[in-house]
Design brief:
The chain is an alpha+beta fold. The protein contains 6 helices and 9 strands; from the N terminus they run βββααααβαββββαβ. The strands form 2 sheets. Strands 1, 4, 5, 6, 7, 8 and 9 form a 7-stranded antiparallel β-sheet that branches. A two-stranded antiparallel ribbon has the order 2-3. A hairpin with a 3-residue loop joins β6 and β7. The chain is globular and about 40 Å long.
Length: 207
C-alpha cells in the first residue's frame, strides 16, 4: 500500500552519460569497484557543488556534459585522499580527514563539513536531512552493518552513498539514495535503526 506523500524535495542532480551520478560497478579498477564508495561520495559532492554553486575548483573537467572517462579520471585523483582499505572508510572522521585534504589542495575554503553520527535519534536525523536538502546540499551517508542485511538495503550495507532528496509521508521520511548509477527511495527510519552498536551516519555540508 502506497503512503501519502505530504511534501517532497529533490536536488538537481547530474548524469554521467546514461547513469544517474557515477556508477561504481563500471570502474575498470577492481579496488574502486569493491572499495571506492568513499572516494565516489566525495567526487559526487564536488561535481554537484561545481555545477550548482559555481565552485569550479572542485572538479577539473567540464561540468555540463560529464563523460565516464572524465569521471573515472577524477575518481582516481580522489582515491589518493580516500584510499580503499580492508575495512573501508568506516568512520565519518576518516572521510572528513581525507576529503578535507583534497579541499585544502584545491584551495577551497567555502565548503565545511560536520559529522552527524548514527548515535543521534531518528527525530534528529529527520531534521538534519530536511535542513540539508532544503539548503540544496547533498548528504554523504555511511551505512555499516544492518539487521536487515537481506532486504532492500542489501547493496547499501557497509557503503557510502548520497542522499539527494526526501519525501515526508504520514508516518516516515523517505530518502532518495544515489549509488551505482541510479537512485532508490528508502525509509530513513529503517536505515537509521541498524540494530548494531557501531554505527555510521551522515556528513553535513555548510557553505
Amino acid at each position: 500500500m502506497e503512503q501519502t506523500v505530504l511534501h517532497k524535495k529533490e536536488l538537481e542532480y547530474f548524469f554521467v552519460e546514461e547513469s544517474y551520478g557515477g556508477n561504481q560497478d563500471l570502474f575498470p579498477d577492481v579496488t574502486m569497484r569493491d572499495g571506492g564508495c568513499g572516494a565516489i561520495a566525495a567526487c559526487e559532492s564536488c561535481i554537484y557543488f561545481a555545477r550548482t554553486n559555481d565552485m569550479r575548483n572542485l572538479y577539473p573537467h567540464p561540468i555540463q556534459e560529464i563523460s565516464r572517462n572524465e569521471y573515472h579520471d577524477f575518481a582516481y585523483i580522489m582515491k589518493h585522499y580516500l584510499c580503499p582499505r580492508p575495512n573501508g572508510i568506516d568512520t565519518l572522521e576518516l572521510f572528513m580527514e581525507g576529503f578535507g585534504e583534497y579541499l585544502k589542495d584545491v584551495k577551497d575554503t567555502r565548503l565545511q563539513m560536520e559529522g552527524f553520527h548514527g548515535t543521534h535519534t531518528y527525530e534528529e536525523a529527520v531534521q538534519a536531512v530536511k535542513t540539508q536538502i532544503d539548503a540544496a546540499c547533498p548528504i554523504p551517508y555511511l551505512m555499516l552493518k544492518h539487521k536487515n542485511e537481506k532486504g532492500a538495503l542489501e547493496d547499501y550495507i557497509w557503503h557510502w552513498f548520497i542522499l539527494a532528496g526526501y519525501e515526508i509521508t504520514e508516518d516516515d521520511l523517505l530518502v532518495k539514495a544515489v549509488s551505482y548509477g541510479e537512485y532508490k527511495w528508502f525509509s530513513l527510519s529503517e536505515m537509521w535503526d541498524t540494530g548494531y552498536d557501531k554505527k555510521g551516519g551522515m556528513i553535513l555540508y555548510h557553505i
